[in-house]
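Quick one:
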Amino acid sequence: MNHSLPLPKILVICGPTASGKSDLALRLARELDAEIVNADSMQVYRRLDIGTAKPGPEQQAEIPHHLIDIAEPDELFSAADYAVAADAAIRDITGRGKRVVIVGGTGLYIRALLKGLVDSPGDTGEIRAALREEADRIGNIAMLEKLRLVDPELAANLHPNNLVRIIRALEVQQLTGIPLSRYQKEHAFSEKRYDTLQIGISVARPVLYERIERRVDQMLADGLLAEVEALLSAGFGDGLKSMRSIGYKESAAHLLGKLSLEEAVTLIKRDTRHYAKRQLTWFKADPDILWFEYPEKFATILQHVIEFFERREA
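Output:
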C-alpha cells in the first residue's frame, strides 16, 4: 500500500435479508454519482435471479452494478475469489472518478474484502471425513479436548456443540501444522486497505419477519418455481452449492417430489428467518458498523455518507 496516497473510500451497506439494503444502495448511488458492488454470495451466479432478489435490468441500467452474474451455477466461487474481484471492481470505479457503494448480506465476503480472508486453507475431504467419523465415535466434548491440545487459544472460545468449527480447526492443523488461531492472525491484512464507512440497516424483528413472508410470497408469484425448474432442466443438480441456497433447495425438493408446495414454502420462510438472525448476529459483532432505521432515517444516513466522502475530497 502506498502510504503517500489517501486510502480509497468505500461505503458498505449491510444488514439482514429483506431489510432494504438494495433500495438504500440505489438511492445513495443516485445522490453520490456512485456505482454498486454486490456483496451477496448468491447474486454472483447467473440464472439465479428471482430467489436471490437480484436487482432487475432497469435498476442495473440506471446504476452500474458489479459482481452480479459473474459465475455459472456449477462454478465454485469463494470469499477469496470475491475479495480479488471486488478489489478489481473498486480500482476500476475509483479510477474513473466514481464513488463506490458495497451492498450485500454476506458477512464473510465483506470481511474478506476489508480485513483479509482469515478463515483457513482448503481441505482434502479425506481428513474432514475421518474427523467426522471420529466425532461420531468419541463425541463433541472429546473432539474439543483434542483441539485444546493443538490450539488452546481457539478451543477456549468454542462450545462443544460447534462441531463444524472444531473439525475445521483440527483439519487446518493437520493440513498445515499450524493452529487455526495463528493462521487467522497471519492471513489477516496487516494494515488498513480502505477508508470505510459501514452502515447497517436496523429493522424491528416482527417487521423484518413480515417483510420476509411477503418477499417469499412475491418470489413465488414472480416465478421462482419456474426458475428452479429451468435450472434443473439445464443440468444444474440440487447438490450444487448454488442450488443448496435458501429458496432453491426447497423449491428443487418440491419439484423433485420430496416436498409438497406448502411444505416447501413453509421451509423457505422459516430458513430465511433463521438466516436473517445469523446475519444480525454476525454484523452486530462488528463495532465499526453504524446502525440506522431505513427508510425512516434516510436523511440522516445521507448526511453521514456525504460527510464521509467529502472529508477527503474537500
